[in-house]
Task: inverse folding
């Protein structure tokens, strides 16, 4: 009977592998846990980077003063807790304007030619933003009880028109020295902070510069501000 060759299978030949000690196993688990945490942290930072950059751009760097057409307001003023009324006479909390960029004009209900020019300019500025226009609301704040003329009532179909007590409004939106509130257009950020004032009695040439300001603001906030409230 021939001897089995060394290359043949040895069914009873078992390989014994050493098992890690409890302390070694604990160390391996700890290393795996730390590695997993660092991986999750890295992924979170990668995802958050665009948002952090946009916040930094808007709140820290912000549009440079020398490049702005509009005047930056410092300190910014938060929308007051005031009860306004809409064109139907229903009460509206002014703080409900939060959640959207606002382009605001102020005047009495009679709305003279300068007021009408502002309303037209607001509409044109918003439309000129193209696909970004839904991130900017057109707001007309009326400071008296004068009824809107039939020609102006259609504005309420496309803009937010609210009557606000002038004394309360003056605590929020303030004109430049020597001017009246109705001579400016105002920009309010989605948190409700009045943060920019365009020059008084702005013409259409100024409106083109105002558009560039608005575009920069919308770009700086693109990662954290969405259209609609």
Result:
């Amino acid at each position: 009977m021939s001897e089995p060759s060394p290359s043949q299978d040895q069914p009873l030949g078992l390989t014994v592998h050493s098992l890690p000690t409890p302390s070694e196993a604990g160390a391996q688990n700890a290393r795996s846990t730390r590695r997993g945490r660092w991986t999750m942290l890295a992924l979170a930072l990668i995802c958050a980077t665009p948002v952090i950059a946009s916040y930094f751009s808007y709140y820290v760097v912000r549009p440079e003063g020398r490049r702005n057409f509009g005047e930056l307001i410092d300190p910014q003023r938060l929308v007051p807790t005031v009860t306004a009324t809409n064109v139907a006479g229903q009460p509206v909390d002014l703080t409900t304007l939060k959640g959207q960029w606002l382009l605001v004009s102020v005047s009495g209900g009679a709305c003279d030619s300068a007021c009408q020019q502002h309303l037209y300019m607001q509409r044109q500025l918003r439309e000129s933003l193209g696909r970004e226009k839904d991130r900017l609301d057109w707001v007309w704040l009326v400071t008296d009880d004068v009824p809107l003329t039939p020609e102006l009532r259609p504005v309420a179909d496309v803009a937010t028109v609210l009557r606000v007590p002038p004394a309360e409004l003056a605590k929020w939106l303030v004109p430049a020295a020597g001017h009246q509130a109705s001579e400016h257009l105002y920009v309010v950020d989605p948190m409700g902070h009045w943060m920019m004032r365009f020059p008084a009695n702005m013409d259409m040439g100024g409106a083109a510069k105002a558009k560039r300001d608005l575009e920069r603001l919308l770009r700086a906030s693109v990662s954290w501000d969405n259209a609609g409230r």
